[in-house]
Amino acid sequence: MFSPEGPSVRELAVQALSSVERGYDLLAPKFDHTPFRTPDPVLAAVESVLRPMGPFGTGLDLCCGTGAGTGVLSRLCREHVTGTDFSAGMLDVARERVRPDGPPVSWVRADARALPFAPAFDLVVSFGAFGHFLPRELPGLFAQVRSVLRPGGRFAFPLVAPPRPGTRGYWALLGFDTVMRVRNALWRPPFVMYYRAFRLGDVRRELDRAGFRVELYALPEFGRRHDGSPRVRLVVARTPDGPAAPDGPVSRGRRRAGPR
After folding, report:
1. Which pairing describes strands 149-160 and 121-125: parallel, antiparallel, or unpaired?
2. Fewer CB within a 10 Å sphere, N or C end of the chain?
3. Which H or E run includes 41?
């Protein structure tokens, strides 16, 4: 599961008993050697779907971690790319490792629930971060994303279909989420990471409520389930083409760091 360069069991245990922010600060130097990093085939598949929708001017990698998705944006955007994350340690690694050949890249430490940006982006992407948000936080999170997009801008992220009940994958995810809930009931600070909480039906409903127009794209590279549905979809949520509302967002100061 982990390469020899990845974290030890002890290091993972220390991370799991820390806050989310502190845990990722500790994990950052070895994060790219864990299965938590978004695999390159997923990044390539997302890029192939988004490319015909461009070109884009500016892009934001939301909860960027060590910058895997930032590299995708640097190939899709012409003007500027920003990576934002709540973990200073992850951003430090991203600054060292991401060397895009495209537009300039900026790194900003920020809370995804209180983004310090004006509506300046044409494309926002996010990879593998939504398990760190509780279902009740989705309305605010999606409202924040919409607030930083220009009219007609897009918010895109891959979403893996849940395993069928009774399968090994189903029990593995259920077991992980159960362990995390017990851990958070007994230990402080909490570590929010639930693999089963981010569901397509809830996601579509909250994106609609936030004013997005939602489209789904199958990523055929990852096959289909027994019922014929895609194993992995790309969710693309687009803002209306008209001007922002009069009470729309303005540039904000830096806020407290939050979940990745």
Report:
1. parallel
2. N
3. helix 40-50
In the sheet that holds 121-125, the strands lie side by side as 105-109, 77-85, 56-62, 121-125, 149-160, 232-238, 213-218
Gap between the Cα atoms of 247 and 86, Å rounded: 26
pLDDT classification of 70: cutoffs 50, 70, 90: very high
- Confirm if 254 and 110 have CB atoms less than 8 A apart: yes
Nearest one of 14, 40, 31, 146 to 85, comparing CA atoms: 31
**For position 111, what pLDDT does the model report?**
93
Instruction: For each of the domains in the chain, give its residue range(s) and CATH number, in order of start.
Output: 38-238 (3.40.50.150)
pLDDT of residue 184: 74
For residue 104, the one-letter residue type is P
Please write down the long-range contacts of 180-187, taking CB distance under 8 Å and 24 or more positions apart: 183/16, 187/17
CA distance linking residue 128 with residue 31, whole number of Å: 13
Lookup: tokens for 153: 């801008």
- Of 76, 218, 206, nearest to 145 by C-alpha is 206
Token couple for 250: 């303005």
Read off the pTM: 0.84
